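Hello,

Following up on my earlier ticket. Below are the two sequence lines again, exactly as submitted.
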Amino acid sequence: MSSLVAQLIVATLVAGTPLVYAALGELVVERAGVVNMGVEGMMVVGAVAAFAVAMATGSLGLGVLVAMAAGMLLSLLFAVLAVSFNANQVAVGLALTIFGTSLGSYLGKSYVGMALVVPPSGLGAAAADIPILGQLHPLVWLSWVLFTATWFFLYRTKYGLALRAVGESPASAHAIGYPVIRIRYLATLFGGALAGIAGAYVSLVYTALWTEGLIAGRGWIAVALVVFATWRPGRCLAGAYLFGGATMAQLFAQSAGVGLPSELMSALPYLATIVVLALISRDETMMRLNVPASLGKPFSI
Amino acid sequence: MHPSLTRPNVPDRLELRSIRKAYPAVVANDDVSLRVAPGEIHAVVGENGAGKSTLMKIIYGIVQPDSGEMLWNGREVVIRSPAQAQRLGIGMVFQHFALFDTLTAAENIALALPTTPSLNALSDQISSVAASYGLPVDPARPIYTLSVGERQRVEIVRALLRKPGLLILDEPTSVLTPQAVEKLFEALRRIAADGCSILYISHKLNEIQSLCDSATVLRGGRVTGTCVPRQETPASIARMMIGEDLPRYREATQAAAGRTRLELANVSLPTRDPFGTALADVSLGIRSGEILGIAGVSGNGQAELMSVLSGEQRLVEHGAVRLDGEAIGHLGPAERRALGLRSVPEDRLDQGAVPAMSLADNVLVTVNRGRATRCGLIRFSWIEAYAKTCIETFGVRCGGPAAHAGSLSGGNLQKYIIGREILQEPGVLIVSQPTWGVDVGAAVVIRQALLDLRDRGAAILVISEELDELFDIADRIAVMAGGRLSEGVERACTSRDRVGLAMTGGHGAPSLHVKEADDAVAL
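Thanks for your patience. The regenerated structure is below:
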């Protein structure tokens, strides 16, 4: 019994982790007042880049690093267009997703159906005896470290305060001497890096194989999560694991032979996450106090 | 006396030489020079659009001048960014504050400091500065919970903690009650006495006379005079400022106020918006042939009251709003307009007009029944003629009915929007902040048009932050504070001080009646 509970917990954490990364990154971006809707595209490119590198070198770590770099490259493209040239953020983000998704399919064409076989890392092997923790990939641990660090940065450091201030009122931040454009660039790049890791995690750890449509809308869920979590990291984390739990629950239900079409079952986690978060975020006051006031609005001097 | 004249060896804190800044459509500053001595309070006076704000943005590094020199403590400097201006020792208090609403006062202040003290140490610093200058600030409160006066104090304290050599204040009293203005002036005098120079930007002549050591007057981007305000009269400074004598209002041919046209009965409106103000038991009545003025610092429920009157906010209780006795609380703006209740919102670019459309098309925003259309199709000749009449009647300076609304100056657009409603001869007109950001000439035209409409028997409600305006045109004055509305009192029976006290609000606010209040004191 307890092993079943432990299994469920592990499965939930495993399935929720990509969203933790992606949503955390997007949260930082949006806190700086920028909406990057290209998360899905950056995740796809990150996933394929990581997979290709890991196949070629056998190193997961290197794959993750390259995925980060790929995500940052795409987000840099976004920042140049949307932050420097003040193009419409939503339009650029959508274009980035379409671009990233197609690029990922193209690059991943020769890998379709291939599986990655990598021995567990030294760190993972050393911790294998610890219950629950030991069954989790170090990338899951890293997501917690990053989550804590990001929270601390946003709410306990002056730089985090400055980032939130830029999202609140870029004109005021500029007036008291902050480099608004640079801060928005850095935030966007951070979001790109985390989307890259999120993609790498899916292709290297979660499935360890490459197929078309691997990311399957997780990037979009991440964007929605940030909004429904009213731009608060804790709620983002909870939402990500809610999604993970629902994913696992429907898999268990499918294998137990519940008489619903599998397509419908696969849609359930998305539906459940959105419904629950939409209910939570109905509080208008909460929304109003947490939404970065300049969200999506370009800033120029 | 100009302090630098008495101490010739001390360099000026700031000197500008022949500053010029041109934008595509307008020369904002042309050959502007001015000097500010250490510890001097120097006024920069001018109408809206005279170039004051551009000049301050140049000093503060937000805008770069095309040519000209700037000297700081006698040494030439080029200021490229606000950050650099702050390092030099220039602080600025903005008219529309540069604060972050959801952050606390302490966080807002911490953001502007070069070092990061702990929040406790910072709170102590804030308290000590606040105490020495009489600028109380609660460090722990988020900005959105503060009144405008408190927000301004946060900005001033924030600037002072950087120990500036020059403090720029842009129209700092536009949102303050008369009593708060006095307190601000005391603080500013103490700040100047400690050696910090102050650049005080304003168009309010009486304030400049009571506060400033010297003044530079701007008109159309050029310096039209410098003076020692205490040796001038308001009329002589005004002449330098607008180039002619202040226009006067025509003698009113006022008839006695008639029957009540518009009534509001015990309206309470909760707000779910944390930045909003709940209306608490608001009642009012406006009679034909009178102007009721509502004074108050904005953010005290004016926006909510306006939305209830215009119909943007419909009420469940139909009878809470009555027009000529008929319940209209449930009707929307268009239905109310059809009944002869018209309104002019506060924000002319956002709500009053569509900036990207022509003036003629903008007629249709509120004049879209009757002859404006035929079988649902727009009669372009008619709306163009309407726009033309409006432009001629109210002296709107523009490129004709085809000019885009957004291309007009604030004053001209406001004349147009108010004119558009007045041409419909409304029985009841509600106007919010009719002359906000409008130059003196246009303000007189607008106020005169309202007075004329009243004399023709209309019932008019004017919501305004400018006490002077209300005392110029209102027959009765009521005060809005904290979502509550006081009773309307005849203008002759109250005073600016009384109204100012009531504006600070709360329960037990003194009566607006000068006489009654004095009687109460005597008892």
